[in-house]
Structure formats: C-alpha cells, structure tokens
Design a protein that fits this description.
Shape: globular
Strand content: under 5%
Number of domains: 1
Strand order of the largest sheet: 1-2
C-alpha cells in the first residue's frame, strides 16, 4: 500500500513539474524569432517578387530551346527534344501563393489596413488576380487540366479541373478584376506599370480577347461563348493594349539589375572564330554547342 501511494505521489509530482516547466517556455522570450525574417507579409515585396520572376516563367528555358532561340552546350538533352519531366506544381507554393497572400492580406479585416499602406486594397487585389490568371493561362496551355477551382486554399488533396473550366474561370476572374479597381492610392511594388491601373485594365482586356480566340474552335459560332467574350472585352470602356507603351514588359534598369539573358549571351560579337558572351565580369568564350 505504501508503495502504491509512493508511486502516485511521484507521478503527481512529475505532472506538476512538467506543467510548471511548460510555463517556463515563456522565459525564452524571442529566442526562436528570426530577426532577419518577417511573419507579416509585405504585399509590395510579394508583388515585386512575382513580377521579377514572371518573365522567366513565361518564356521558359525549355520553350526557348525547342524553338532554338539559344542552345545548350554541355548537356543538350532538352535541345534534342528529350522528355521534359517538369511540372507546374512548384508555382502553386511560389508565384501563385505570393499572389494569394496579397489577396488575403488585402481582404482580411485584421490585415487590410496595414496592407493598404502599399496601395488601395482593391487595386492590389485586382493586380494579383490578373497575374494569377496570367500564370494559370500559361500553365494550362502547357499541361492541360490542373488544380484551379479549389487550388491555393490550403488543401493538398484537390481535384484537377478541366481546361475548359480553367479558361472560363480565368475570363470571369479578369472581368471581375477590372470592375473592382478603384481610384485609391497607387500600388507600390509594381515595377511593370508603376501603379498605373489603366494599363492593368488594358492588359486584362487583351488577355480576355486572346483567351477567347483560343476557344474559338470549341465555340465557333458568332453567338457562342468565345465570340461573346471577345466582343465584350473589345467593347469594354477600359480599352485594351493598342500601343507599345501599354505592353506588359519588365524593363531592367541595368547596373546590378540586368536582364538574366544578359548574363548568358549578349549578341554575336566579332572576336574571331569564337562566340563570346559579355557579362558584368567581362568577356569569356562560349564552347560550341553540341549536336544531337
């Protein structure tokens, strides 16, 4: 009997010590807080990150190799049309998630006031929605059916939507994004259009028209979905891209911020038989490309 009480006493003491030691975790203060990181997304930085990346995403090294805009040297597998096992899944946790974070932070009542320091909530959301549509557009054209309707909601077990569903969803997204823009503060972090909402609207309408054209063989009639959506985008009062000044183009400022292609090749130079490449560190010779 004494042994039983002894065991109970030891167990009770152990529970008390564990419970009290758990409270001591507060004594660590900010030990586990990384001072160089932030747990509060800065929406302007997220937007800049997406815009600096989306150019390379859209052009795709694989696509450029296939149409011989440039060639590989040491490893010519893709140049020889070897199977490309790449998938778009990394974009869901990268570019698309950054854009979804912009939308969430500008929508949530607990964060929208802070997010508004980087521009109108509605305008940030509108730009993010247009860029999301752009990325999904490139992805579905490459891979077909993808997670779309329920994607970016935190559930990894989502169904793949048909390409038709994705296209109609993107057109609806763009249409609504245009309507939701307002005359609020300019969006910070916009290194393409510098917060000019009129140009973002033109981009969205141009995307709507191009998407509609790609559906024209599925809906060939003049009264079908494709023609109806094209006419609606063309007639929209916000207009569409009509001059080079409205192009969706990322202009690199130079210096330490050069176009990535600059580091690979800067045009043919007349330096004899070899092909040269200009880099910030000077000139170096490229080996001749291997044949398939």
């Amino acid at each position: 009997m004494k042994k039983t009480f002894h065991k109970i006493g030891v167990l009770a003491l152990g529970i008390v010590l564990i419970a009290s030691s758990c409270n001591k975790l507060k004594d660590f203060g900010t030990t586990n807080v990384d001072p160089s990181a932030t747990n509060k997304p800065i929406t302007s930085a997220l937007l800049t990150n997406v815009l600096t990346t989306v150019g390379a995403f859209a052009s795709s090294n694989t696509s450029s190799l296939y149409c011989q805009y440039y060639s590989e040297t040491q490893y010519p597998d893709i140049s020889c049309y070897a199977l490309n096992a790449a998938t778009p899944m990394a974009n869901y946790s990268g570019l698309l998630y950054d854009l979804q974070n912009i939308i969430i932070n500008n929508t949530d009542d607990a964060t929208k006031a802070t997010a508004a320091l980087n521009g109108s909530n509605n305008n940030q959301i509108g730009i993010a929605r247009i860029l999301k549509a752009y990325i999904f557009w490139v992805q579905t054209d490459r891979w077909g059916d993808l997670p779309y309707t329920k994607a970016l909601a935190g559930d990894p077990n989502v169904d793949f939507d048909t390409q038709e569903t994705i296209y109609k969803g993107m057109i609806a997204e763009l249409t609504d994004a245009i309507a939701k823009f307002d005359a609020g503060a300019a969006v910070k972090g916009d290194i393409v259009y510098s917060g000019d909402i009129t140009k973002w609207k033109k981009l969205a309408n141009s995307m709507r028209m191009l998407m509609s054209l790609r559906l024209s063989k599925v809906y060939p009639s003049a009264t079908d979905y494709a023609a109806t959506q094209f006419k609606a985008a063309l007639a929209d009062g916000a207009g569409s891209i009509a001059t080079n000044a409205d192009n969706f183009t990322l202009v690199y400022p130079g210096g330490n911020f050069k176009n990535p292609y600059y580091n690979m090749y800067d045009g043919r130079k007349d330096y004899g038989e070899s092909e040269t490449m200009t880099t910030p560190k000077g000139l170096r010779t490229l080996p001749p490309p291997q044949s398939c």
